[in-house]
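Hi W.,

Here's what went into the run:
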Amino acid sequence: MSENVPSELRYAETHEWVREEENGICVIGITDHAQHLLGDLVYVELPEAENNIRSGDEAGVVESVKAASDVYSPLSGEVIAVNEALADTPELVNQDPYGDGWLFKIKFINHAELEELLDSESYNEKVAAEEA
Amino acid sequence: MLIFEDSKPGRRAALQAPQAQADTLDIPSEFLRASKPCLPEVSELQVVRHFTRLAQKNFSIDTHFYPLGSCTMKYNPRGVHRLASLPAFLERHPLAPDVHSQGYLSCAYGLQEILKEITGMPAVALSPMAGAQGEFAGVAMIRAYHNSRGDKQRNEILVPDAAHGTNPASAVMCGYKVREIPTASDGDVDIEALKQIVGPQTAGIMLTNPSTLGVFDRRIEEISQLIHQAGGLLYYDGANLNAILGKVRPGDMGFDVIHLNLHKTFATPHGGGGPGCGPVAAGPRLAEYLPTPRVGKDGDSFYWLTEQDCPHSIGRMSAFMGNAGIILRAYIYCRLLGREGLHRVAEYATLNANYLMKCLAEVGFELAFPERRATHEFIVTLKKAAKTLKVNAMEVAKRLLDYGFHAPTTYFPLLIPECLLIEPTETESKEELDRFIAAMSSILEEMQHEPELVRQAPHTMPVHRLDDVKAAKELDLVWQAE
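Here's what came out:
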């Protein structure tokens, strides 16, 4: 299985990815590895925009025919946008987990949390260790 | 093919015998329908053929080995159903006065007594109408207990990550926050992690023992002490009771409340969505909060215990007394088997599971917990095969259908990747288990030498692969006339 782990992103232990954009905003989704494990998604539940969440909080649910899994926010801050398209087309997460399948955007309040996330190399190692 | 598709206007099945006509003249006209109900118009023979053909397509416990086990449907003896269907039971009105219901009440009372013995708890309520409702009742009782003591800062229920999904759902329904406890690599609860999480905010813990991983948590007494010392209570999910019937009692393990699934362990078919029955048994701390009604006994006569008799009860879980037919079946099953018979259920359920587990390991399957003894079920993981042979657990499950076996549970528990959860139950013979082992062994060969055969399975079923993604996204369950 060749899974895609882009080197420019940061990763959470719980298989979310984070992409830093401008003005303290980050985009969050689940990794290619996570969508692969879940299989075809049938439902995605997202946080409400303008909600404040803390890192480690449950921020949503991704549900496949196999299982429903919680999505945790890797960062603390305010949810400023959610990917509305996933309500009708959850399969975008399977097809393009780092692009059109993004889940939500957060205006983070603590840059240190971003620093603490895994880089692509450490995330790859973590996945390899889980698979062993 | 739906029976509606056979329908032709005006065609009907005549009555076999004259029926007494009830007098319907006194129904007010505004309640009478103006149009005929939309029912299929078919002949008797068409009805017979339609349902016989459907039944022939069915994979059922009556025709096939069914390793989903008691979790879904173990074999339920016919005699139990027959006795529970005696006309005097069927025709009893739920509002009939106690004096006319002594037969039913004595059975329900008898079942309460038997379940007290099985669970090691001093009191039982039979009224919850499903496992999840039993869970809700149990957690609501924990809440009532803490509230009655003014201990209102307890807002967390601990649930192991191996738990049934209903456990966290029930805790949330009762207004609690759920804290997940990790599982140690040997399959037991991670007790060090538990120590970190438990505290003055802990209302209780929900545990299944044996767990969904098919192992009996050996440190249950330590867990029980930890929780009780912190002021919390222990809830037992009775889904896996089949493994311990008459052998270990949840009350003796330190649990304060338990729900039992009569529709799993006690002779009611469960697969197909019910009806279920989830009685709750409670220890000394929680007995007064049990739901109503319960059955009491005064000398030789039986009566309903209601809110007047049990002022601290959390209340009613159902109209009347719960699912009466299932309560009867459970009572009759226990009486037919007797104490020794119930012990044998647990013994053979675990013996069959351990035999199957050892043999499957010998033919080359990887066990999730090879160092542990199985309870009534065990887990095979196809994690390596999925990687090296590119054949996954779902495909193996589908291939089993071609060999004449129902598939076991797949992809649950979620902790074990590519898993098959196999539960043979107590009623399978060694010969049947050997046939299953031979089929699994043969599938393993195919995975190595003809993997495409497994990947494309099933080959012999009336339908091939169902589109479960589409089915989940576009749920369409109701036939509608054009």
